Amino acid sequence: MIDPSILEILLMEYAAGHLRPSEALVVTCHLALSPNARKRVQAYEALGAKMICDDCGENDIAAVSDDCFDKIMSRIEQPAPIMMQVPRTPMQQDRSIPPAVMSLLCGHCTERNIRWQAIGPGVEAVSLHVPAGSPCRHRLRLMRLGPHQQIPMHRHGGREMTLVLEGSFSDHTGTYRKGDLVVIDDPAFAHQPRAGDQGCLCLILTDAPIYFKKVHVWILRIFRRR
Amino acid sequence: MIAATAVPLYTTVESLAFLRRARLQRRMASVIPSGMPTAPASAAAPHEQLLVQVGARQDRAAFRTLFEHYAPRLKSYLLKHGAGDALAEEIVQNTFVTIWEKAAQFDPKKAAASTWIFTIARNRRIDAIRREKYIEIDSDNPALERAASDAPDDAYVDSATAEKLRAAIDDLPPEQSALLRMAFFEDKTHQAISDETHIPLGTVKSRLRLAVEKLRGTLGKTGADKNGKETQK
């Protein structure tokens, strides 16, 4: 059973600003596809504001220096010269990806285009890179499964986030459709996901290797390091 | 049909805007006589109104009032998140410069002032401490998936929801609420919480899940997901 509270913790961490960029990007893509999740994040932001701004006791507040306000006003009056933005070649559009997600990937990934690579029968993938302030172990990929294509039984060494962008996939815990974000954070959990009739396009973030019960050659190709 | 309704619609929007201005002016009038230069402590302090004034006509007095109220609270938040005094002060300054620059975009129909200010401070904190850009969603992007009846007003999570969540946190067993506060408001990893509290990592995670499960129930009841198209499995 995939525990729904893990997803809730993730939304909360997103609202609190604790996620690393690639995690935040996956959550943001989820928000683009799920109005429900947008509302929950807004609620957690309102809660954060309430705890920090409204409920703060007099003992809890930290005095700012006397000239803080004046410094702000002088910065406002003499705005810093606008940094010339280096024009960036935008990522090439890929029509198979929902537009709201595509625009997020364009805005935050360094790739110029989405170059699908066949990594096995009925499976294509492409790695994406999100700049971060400090190194992180995350690996972000788009993966596309053909109709009824199955990924063999495997378990996850760390936390895996899978966002369904189009189509659906099923495993023994249920069926997941467009907009669903499945978070697996249990090293003992093993599953054998299978794409639905329309195939499945997913955005997948992992922070540790995946272990297959039976190792096939093509699997090694899928999950080799870049 | 469309052309015929276009003019009356336009005038309706105009007059609505006028009514809103008039209402805002009335509210201001009711605030100014009691006009203390510092923020009134009452919950009715119309911070939303002050932000609108800053956005509409660079109102420095309104900006100052917001500063007096929020700056020390934000500084305290930043100190708790591991910023040193000088850095916390710098982030407070960055936050208020951004508030000034973006105030015209603030829409009181979409967010409470405190929530809007919190999100700016959060983003400036990530900028300054992690040197990363906070990845956000543009809620005005027309490409976003909408719920069937996702009227603009539905998108506004009112402070009553935050109040209910807050009450739900207060109702949690102390060992759960303490962990939740550490995880959410102090930017601590589950491992760091485990090290600090000497509670095994597995227990930290399971308590957090229990706590979050209760909050999730609260959000469901407040109607925050009444238009949601899916329930997570």
Tag the structure with descriptive keywords:
heterodimer, A: 226 residues, alpha+beta, seven-stranded antiparallel sheet, three-stranded antiparallel sheet, 6 helices, B: 233 residues, mainly alpha, 9 helices, 65% helix, globular, disordered N terminus
What overall form of chain A do the CA principal axes indicate? globular
Task: Give the radius of gyration of chain B.
Answer: 21 Å
- Overall pLDDT confidence of chain A: 88
Number of helices of chain B: 9
Binned, the helix content of chain A reads 25-40%
- What structural category do the secondary elements of chain A indicate? alpha+beta
- Assembly of the depicted chains: heterodimer
Shape of chain B: globular
As a percent range, the share of helical residues of chain B equals: 55-70%
| Beta-strand segment tally of chain B | 0
Q: Any low-confidence stretches of chain B, pLDDT <50, length ≥5? A: 1-45, 222-233
Note the gap between the termini of chain B: 45 Å
What does this structure look like?
- The complex is a heterodimer of chains A (about 230) and B (about 230).
- By secondary structure, chain A is an alpha+beta fold.
- Chain A is about 30% helix and about 25% strand.
- In chain A, the strands form two sheets. In chain A, strands 1, 2, 3, 5, 6, 7 and 9 form a seven-stranded antiparallel β-sheet that branches.
- In chain A, helix 1 crosses helix 3 (about 35-55), helix 2 (about 20-35) packs across helix 3 (about 35-55) and helix 2 runs antiparallel to helix 5.
- The model of chain A has no long low-confidence stretch (mean pLDDT about 90).
- The model of chain B is unreliable at about 1-45 and about 220-233 (pLDDT under 50).
- At the A-B interface, helix 1, helix 2, helix 3, helix 4 and helix 5 of A face helix 3, helix 4, helix 5, helix 6 and helix 7 of B.
